[in-house]
Each structure stands twice: as structure tokens, then as C-alpha cells.
């Protein structure tokens, strides 16, 4: 199992707009297609104007399959056109659990 951690840095002060747009237009699409939301956060200290979301996958093949479906979804494409102007940068990391940890999401 693995977790993809995506960090989006918005333009200063635009994290509220980003979260409002995501809740209204993007959340249900991603939950339907990506499936396992592990967490969704915003930064309060440190690097500001960041939104971090994490999604769980069985393996890289499942991640690729689900993200391909997401990128082809017409509603997602429409959302992305509205969302991208709010962002300054995006970063993605693939996290694998330590040998002694087992993720707690449900299949």
C-alpha cells in the first residue's frame, strides 16, 4: 500500500477560495474516482497558503489507473480550468509505510 501526498501552494490568501471551489466542484469527483481519501489539510504555520491532500492506493498500478480515469473525466477537466489560476505550485510525493505500520483505510 502507498499514499500519494499532494501539496498545492496557492497564491497568497487564495487558500480559502481554493478550498471553497474544491468542496463545491472537486471533492465528490475525486472521492468517486480516487476512492481512499487519507487526509485533507491546510497549513497553519510554516509554509503558508498550502493545501495538502493524501490518497491511498494498493500500488502504483492502481494509482495510475484511477488518475487516468480522473484526468479523462469531463467534470474534473471543467473543475481544473477554474482551479489552476488559484495555484502557484504543485508537488506530489509517494509515501510507503514503514514495515511496522499498516494503513487503516477500508477496502
From TrEMBL:
InterPro entries found in the cross-reference section: Dimeric_a/b-barrel, NIPSNAP, NipSnap_domain
Top-rank taxon: Bacteria
Domain NIPSNAP, residue spans: 3-100
SUPFAM superfamilies per UniProt: Dimeric alpha+beta barrel
Family of this protein: Belongs to the NipSnap family.
Protein's name according to its UniProt entry: NIPSNAP family protein
Organism name: Cupriavidus lacunae
Amino acid at each position: 500500500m502507498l499514499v500519494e501526498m499532494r501539496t498545492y501552494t496557492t497564491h497568497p490568501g487564495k487558500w480559502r477560495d481554493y478550498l471553497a471551489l474544491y468542496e463545491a466542484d472537486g471533492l465528490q469527483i475525486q472521492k468517486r474516482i480516487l476512492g481512499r481519501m487519507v487526509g485533507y489539510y491546510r497549513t497553519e504555520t510554516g509554509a503558508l497558503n498550502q493545501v495538502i491532500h493524501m490518497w491511498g492506493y494498493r500500488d502504483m498500478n492502481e494509482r495510475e489507473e484511477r488518475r487516468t480515469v480522473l484526468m479523462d473525466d469531463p467534470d474534473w477537466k471543467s473543475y481544473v480550468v477554474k482551479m489552476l489560476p488559484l495555484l502557484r505550485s504543485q508537488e506530489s510525493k509517494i509515501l510507503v509505510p514503514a514495515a511496522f505500520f499498516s494503513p487503516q483505510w477500508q477496502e
